[in-house]
Each structure stands twice: as C-alpha cells, then as structure tokens.
C-alpha cells in the first residue's frame, strides 16, 4: 500500500513562543514542520528539504517579511510554494501589499486552530490545482505542438501525407480545445468539432470566414494589431481573448496562435489552439468577492464593541441631560436630535454586526408559498397604487429549511428596492417561483452546490442597474441612492446595508443569489432588475414552532419594592460608562468595579450583600461569562445582567447557557436598563415572598 506523504510546512518567525505554538498545532493535525528565525536560513532550508507551504509572520523585528515574500515569489524554484501571512493587525494596505506580492492568504493573531487549519488546506488545494492546471496545459500544448510538427512534416513529405493527416485529424477532433486553422491571410480552412460545440458555428459556416466572426467589442484595434504583428513575424502569440458566440453570448479563451512554416521557411498557415476559461474566471471572481465580504465582516466585528461603548456613553448622557430641562425648552429639541442620530447609528452598527457574524438562527421546514403570499400582503400596503403585483407560483413546492423572520427581511428589502426603481414611472413587481435542479455547481452563482433548489425571482421593470454598478450592489454601504435618493453616491435616507443583509441571509441559508439587470431593451419584459434567490429544498413535514417563553411577566403596575433597598454590583472597565451607570442608577445602592477579578473579590467578601450583578462581557482579567460562572458557584440564585457591544462567545441565543438572567446589547437606553433591573428585582422579591408576579 502506497504511503501518503505528509505535508511539510515552514514557519518563519523571530518569536520562539509563536513558533513553538504553531509547531504544536501542526503536529496535532499531522503536519510536519520546520522553522527558522533568521532570513538567511530560509533559502538553505528550502534547498535541502521539500516544503509544501510557508507560514510567514508580517510583524517581525529581525526579518523584513514583505521583502522575503517578494524574494520567494521572484524565485524560479520556490515561487509556487503558497505563503500564508500571519498578522496582529490586518490593515488593508499591508494585506494588499501581501496579496500583490503573491501571498495566498492571511490569518490574524490570536490564531484560531480551526481557521488556520482551513486556510492551510485551502492554500494547499489551490496550489495543487494550479500545479495540475499547469501540468495539463503543458501536456496539451506539447500534444498540440507535436500535432503541428506532424502537419508540417505532412506538407514536406507527400508520401506520408495521408497517414499523418489522419493521425492529426483524430487528435484535433477529439481535443477538448477549439482548434482553428487559417491560411496566411486569416481565412478559415478548418475548425474542429469542439469549436462547433462551443461557438455554435458549423464547419461549413466558418470555412471561408475570418476569426473576426467571433470578434467582440472588448478589445481595441491595437490589441489585434499587436497579435498580427507577432504571428506574421514568425512568433507564437499567447493571451486571453473575449469572443462572441453565434447566439451573442460572450466567452473568454486562453489562446495560443502559432505560425506554420513551409519547406522554404515561409509562413503558410496559422493554427490557433484555444481553451474556454469562462467558468474558471467566473469562479475566481466569486471567490474574490466572498473573500472581500469576509474581510469586511471581520473588520465590522472588530470595531463594533468599541463603537457601541462610545454610543452608549453618548446616548446615556443625552438621556440624563434631557431630564435637566423643562418640557418645551429649546435645549430638549437639540437633545432629541442627538438621540435620534444616536439611535440611527445604533441601527447601523446592529446591521453591521448582523453582517459580520454567521448567525445560527432557529430554522424550521417552511412552505415558501405561504411565506411569500404573506409578505406580498404586507407589500401591497407599502407599495404605491401605480405599482402592480404579478405572481407566477406552482401549485405546490417542496419545503425549505429557513428562518421565517430572516427570509421575510430578504423579501421586504427586495420589495423596497423595486419600489425605489419604479417610484416615478410605476410598473410591475413580479414574484416567480420555480423548482430547479443543478447537476453541477453553476459558475455564476456563488455558494450553490448540486441538488434541488427553490428559485424565487423578484423582478421589477424600473430603470435598471448600470453594468459598472451591478458587481458592487452587495458591498456594504454601497448604494445607488444619492442625496434625495437619485444619483449614485452616499444616501441620506439609508445605510447601504439592505442588499448586503440580503446576501448574508441567503448565504447563511446555504443558498445563492444572482442579479440580472437591463437598462434599455426592445423587449419590455427584459427592462429593469431581477434578483434570483436559490434556497435548497428539504423533505419532511412542517412542524409547529416552539419558541422560548419569556422568563418574566410584563410589569405594568408600580413595583412592590423600593430601588434604595437593593444593592447592585457593577463590573465595567470603561470609566465613562461606569460614571454613567453611577449617575443613571443613583436610586440604587451601587458598587463599581473596573475589572472582572476586582468584581469577584468584592463579591466574595460579602456574597449576600448584593441583589444583582451588572457586568460587561469584554473586561480585563476576567471576562463577563467567566465572572458569571465564578459568581454562580458561590450563589447559584444570583441574578446577573450581561452587556456587550459585540462578542463571539455569547449572544441572545445562548446567554442562558451561562446562567445569565438577562442579555443586553449595547448601546442600551437607560430607561430599558432600569426596566430590566427592576423586573428582575421584582421577580426575585416575589419569589422570596412566595407571591405571584
């Protein structure tokens, strides 16, 4: 039995601690590792051992990582080795330089094992694919070069002409590349069967024509002039050409055009060997877009915590300041404007957080016909009278595993987009459902695998999206609403996150989305924009949804206990927020601590002193969930409220798993915070006195 060789990875880092940590990880997943801490040791080691991948730290004192990366990628021997950059601060400019110099990917410290493992596998897979692709192209090129030499030999040797011609025709006609043979003037004399299959032109239709029959408007006159100059000088021309099929469809080919020489050394013919790479380029584009969206998501999650803390301080102090003025005072209007803008900022950051995290929302098998019909009833109320609704639904369709709330959000966003496009002229909002089956992953829809999908098309016949804009419509903050909602640019009405949210929700449902748009067309039904949603179908029956019940009943009457009777322990490392808590909760007894360990120590001195703990999640020494765990070991009945601006560990879905009574996402309105505190304290008081709350 042949033993599979182990992957060998080189670690380049001047920090021994990081090197040792990476070596342990690589050993865990059965990778072989080598490491160097000085740049002069890199190339000798590469020369002595077969290295499959390099992990290179960007931020090193002794080694210029970018220079070393450049040396590796300029080297004839080691340029094909994938390099993954390790960084503590993924700045866009530094990452751009790394990618420009040939880096395969990057990981951010602190390094998560699962992410690093995935990046290593992806980089190795890509490298192997490129090696295989190069090998295949080289083999095909050698085979076709051999065929060309046989053709020249056939012309030179009349006695062997028929035999060699038969061999050549067999090879070319069975090839999976287009082959075109022209005379010196460019008149087509032969095309192979694959050319006919790809372009739609038969041999009879192509013979006597020139390759201009395939010409698109994607290349300049200079492009073709340089091509002809090259081959007329007896050289081989290689490059990518965008051509047009008989039905008008554009496609891209990797093309090699070689001159064929006669007995006296003169050029007699040209042979073009062309590989259709349209699908490959589409997949690469989709991959780049997915990587960009992922990078934006990481950035959004990174800024969310600090931004929400800042918003909390601003909104909280504005609420306190509002109470300092009499009703009708001019100052209260100014404060209302501050609060209004703050709440808008809160909504934006909430959408960013939704985009940046893959939410494991509660999903259930749903009948999409019912969901869409309900959404259209809502849409009818929101749409003006000059917009009609057209539907085309099958009698029945399979179930889809989905979050009804999120899918409704998708429909709402797309309906509102259609409304904006048809607001001035009116039109038709069309919703079409059909079942599609993919036997192979489609190149133009990212995230789609083989299988059965429900295709939902939401189409309008509005003004459409310009081609130069269409590829950016799912980017965060990109919007075609300008000031007043007209020109392309920043919008005063929205945040530019609507279609980003649509993209994210569909991706998280293991589906795909594609956009189609036509600005002007003689066929009226093609005018406008269509969004095609693809959701995988499932088998089964619709189950009744069981949603968690609230812990507390709504308290409408006055509270049975006075705030001054209760003592609250607050753990918050932001001084301004701590001050805000102290002022906003002045009706209670409050003890402030500025890190988790201090809060734990304070609580341990007198565990029965405190009626409730309010803690932030991200704190020095002891994070909120860990603090809660330690406190509940001492007092299992202790009510705890956890706040956070952003956390990957705890969310509205899982906070009760940590024994936490209430989860509040910053920024929090002081009124809501006080309401939550009093509800908990009232509930605890009722439980203690055996009363019904």
Q: How does this structure look, described?
A:
With 693 residues, the protein is α/β, with parallel strands linked by helices. The protein has 19 helices and 22 strands. Strands 11, 12, 13, 14, 15, 16 and 17 form a 7-stranded mixed β-sheet that branches. Helix 5 (113-156) packs antiparallel against helix 6, helix 10 packs across helix 16 and helix 17 runs parallel beside helix 18. The longest helix is centred in the middle third of the chain and has 45 residues, at 278-322. The N and C termini lie far apart (72 Å). Residues 482-495 and 542-560 have low confidence and may be disordered.
Features:
20% strand; seven-stranded mixed sheet; 693 residues; alpha/beta; five-stranded parallel sheet; globular
